[in-house]
Amino acid sequence: MNRPHPAPRIRHFAFAIGMASILLLSAQAVTAQSLRTEYGSLDAYSNEGLSLAWAILKAEAGQGPENDCILLRIVMRDGSTPALLVSGVDPFTGDRKQLSTVKGPGPSTELRLPRSHFADYPRTEILFSDLGWMIYYFGIPDTTPEFLDEAKMEVYLAARLSAAK
Questions:
Q1: Which class would CATH give 36-164?
Q2: Which of 59-73, 82-96, 129-143 shows the lowest per-residue confidence on average (mean pLDDT)?
Q3: Do residues 118 and 70 make contact, with C-beta atoms less than 8 angstroms apart?
Q4: Per the count of CB atoms within 10 A, which of 34, 53, 100, 147 is most buried?
Q5: What are phi and psi of 68, to 5 degrees?
């Protein structure tokens, strides 16, 4: 019984895998090129139908600044919930940590982190996957206000986000 040699089939399979890999890499390159990236430098930002603001809630007396709570609040102007992927990144090692957002007051989304987080992951990337847009920050913006009272922080954030619209 004469069976065909498997080498041609293996070559065809290897060729197909190679072509699939090239197509996948090309698609990723196009996606990376079409993603708009912007550097955020201030404690408030408004663009693409969204507003975001940072604030710092100081730790209780006797606790160090590493226990401060850093808050980032994001509001879509149309009231929708954004499709977000938020990452903390160590720019020196490339290590990434996915960060969890929670529902904030009204139509907002929040990220709350201890100040100590920024020692290990100083870059914060906020990817709005539905908009094809990313904003990133190095550390906490210098202009971010600090509050001792959470109620005062909430009043500030509400005013800052409505003014940014």
A1: mainly beta
A2: 59-73
A3: yes
A4: 53
A5: -60, 150
Amino acid at site 77: R
Q: b/e per residue, 15-30, with b = 16+ CB within 10 A?
A: eeeeeeeeeeeeeeee
Q: How far apart are CA 87 and CA 137, in angstroms?
A: 11
Q: Contact, 79 vs 107, CB < 8 A? A: yes
147 closest CA partner among 44, 68, 74, 72: 68
* Residue pLDDT, tens place only, 67-103: 899 999 999 988 888 889 999 999 999 999 999 999 9
- Matching residue, tokens 């879509």: 76
The pTM score is 0.74
User: What is the domain partition of the chain in residue ranges?
Assistant: 1-34, 36-164
